[in-house]
Amino acid sequence: MEVIHSIADLRSRIKDYRRKNDQSVGFVPTMGYLHEGHASLLRKARAQSGLVVLSIFVNPLQFGPGEDFERYPRNTERDLQLAEAAGVDLVFMPSVSEMYPSPTRTTVSVTGLTSRLCGASRPGHFDGVATVVSKLFHIVQPDQAFFGLKDAQQVAVIEQMVQDLNLGIEIVPCPILREADGLAMSSRNVYLSEEERKEALVLSQSLQKAKAFVESHTAFTPQELESLVSQHIATSSLAIIDYVEVLAYPTLEPFKNSHHTHSIIIALAVKFGKTRLIDNLILQVGK
Ligand code: AMP
């Protein structure tokens, strides 16, 4: 495994690989502080691609004022160990000035899909995501890129961007990895106090309740599911709901009742103290 900091070095290393091999290049973009969720993406890339490229870059563009950019957890040594064990070939770890030499005047903005959920509560977030991911795609030029459904709105945004800009990259969505008790794995879980960590279980529990409800009802409205989920989350005195929304997926459009769509997402963002957690469940609904 090789660790690379400059764009020019990464480009020439990948060009060299392409010259000597006809296998595909797989790419997993991350912000580091890697956990088993990231490892599952890397293992999938290892199984499907000839060359596995991991990027670790805490992207300032996708953090709003007052968010956790400065205190975002970092542990390079541990990240490199996990990457090596998952079979990564190249780790790209650029500095902020390498990615954004000033002045930078181009933003990639995906409209529509970004107006709800995290797009509504974190203005500018998805412009930051689309801009950095398109820059990384241009640098790496992968055949496949692997993204976790933990960030299901992000997957929808990136798929749309790839289609709109004819990037010709296969986006591979990967399932959410959870702790044994159900909490979705996240680099931000480390912020939680012991009590908050316990109470955060209401999130995955509420999604399981919603799943049971969907499975036992032939028809339902999004509002019914939203209130069931919100009520369960409200049983935790520490939880402050940012949003609980049920939409069609991947269009992220509202729908009237379950007869009007095939695939739905139950998406939530909830704060425990200063820590904002997201989780979701995507379900197929029968006619
Ligand atoms: P991040 O480092 O948080 O930007 O995440 C990098 C990639 O890992 C994104 O595609 C995430 O969706 C994915 N990811 C993060 N947490 C999980 C998880 N618990 N299960 C699966 N994928 C995840």
From TrEMBL:
Binding, ATP: 31-38, 148-151, 177, 185-188
The keyword Nucleotide-binding is assigned to this record: yes
Pathway: Cofactor biosynthesis; (R)-pantothenate biosynthesis; (R)-pantothenate from (R)-pantoate and beta-alanine: step 1/1
Binding site for beta-alanine: Q62
Record EC number: 6.3.2.1
Gene Ontology molecular function: pantoate-beta-alanine ligase activity
Pfam families attached to this UniProt entry: Pantoate_ligase
Binding, (R)-pantoate: Q62, Q154
Catalytic activity: (R)-pantoate + beta-alanine + ATP = (R)-pantothenate + AMP + diphosphate + H(+)
Job description of the protein: Catalyzes the condensation of pantoate with beta-alanine in an ATP-dependent reaction via a pantoyl-adenylate intermediate.
Extra facts: The reaction proceeds by a bi uni uni bi ping pong mechanism.
Membership in a protein family: Belongs to the pantothenate synthetase family.
Subunit structure: Homodimer.
Stated name of the protein: Pantothenate synthetase
Natural source organism: Paenibacillus germinis
